[in-house]
């Protein structure tokens, strides 16, 4: 059992890699509603590290690099678009986010629907194939 207070910001932070991290940051902010907290660009335009916030949660991301940590992760394009995890984003209005995602060209993998367990949501891929489940269901 952890002793971290319940009102602490998120203690699990997904980390993602992108071939075009600047474009991914723009898409995640414009389409899903993230905000830039910190973006550390390299001289060549790649992203060394970025932190994007949403509510009291965060994701971290970078460009793809051939580093010790980078070699531990696969990009969806390297695995036939199969992934081993999906990030879930709790939103107030799943219909509005779905409309923005469709307009931004997201591949919708599971349609917008009312869920048996409560809430309304959908599952899509960002432009590089990372899987996002988005909905109003709040498990807390």
UniProtKB/TrEMBL annotation:
Listed CDD domains:
TioX_like
Q: Which residues form the VOC domain?
A: 9-137
Q: Which domain of life is it from?
A: Bacteria
Q: Which Pfam families match?
A: Glyoxalase
By what name is this protein known?
Glyoxalase
Q: Give the originating organism.
A: Pseudoduganella rivuli
């Amino acid at each position: 059992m952890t002793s971290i207070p319940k009102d602490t910001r998120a203690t699990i932070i997904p980390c993602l890699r992108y071939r075009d991290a600047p474009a991914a940051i723009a898409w995640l902010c414009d389409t899903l509603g993230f905000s830039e907290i910190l973006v550390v660009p390299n001289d060549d335009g790649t992203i060394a590290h970025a932190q994007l916030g949403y509510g009291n949660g965060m994701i971290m991301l970078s460009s793809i690099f051939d580093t010790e940590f980078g070699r531990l992760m696969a990009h969806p394009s390297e695995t036939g678009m199969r992934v081993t995890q999906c990030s879930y984003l709790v939103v107030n209005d799943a219909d509005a986010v779905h409309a923005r995602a469709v307009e931004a060209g997201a591949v919708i993998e599971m349609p917008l629907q009312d869920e048996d367990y409560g809430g309304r949501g959908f599952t899509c891929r960002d432009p590089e194939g990372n899987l996002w489940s988005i909905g109003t269901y709040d498990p807390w």
